[in-house]
Fold Acetolactate synthase isozyme 2 large subunit.
Amino acid sequence: MTGKLNAFAPHAKVIHMDIDPAEMSKLRQAHVALQGDLKTLLPALQQPMQIAPWLQRVAELKETHPWRYDHPGQPIYAPLLPQATV
């Protein structure tokens, strides 16, 4: 990047990959900083994510904290439940 860094893609999320840790977020704050050789970093980013443990945790949370509002027309206990807004 050159020129006016603050004017270039001001709303973009920045991922900075560099082998030199001193260069991380040096000119512009990175949202994600990955230090290492690109020959290693890029193939690692292409690996599928292992989300089975996360899905199991979500299932446990749903079991532990079920919705109180399951059916249209059922009275609710608050004007707007957070889980009904997402």
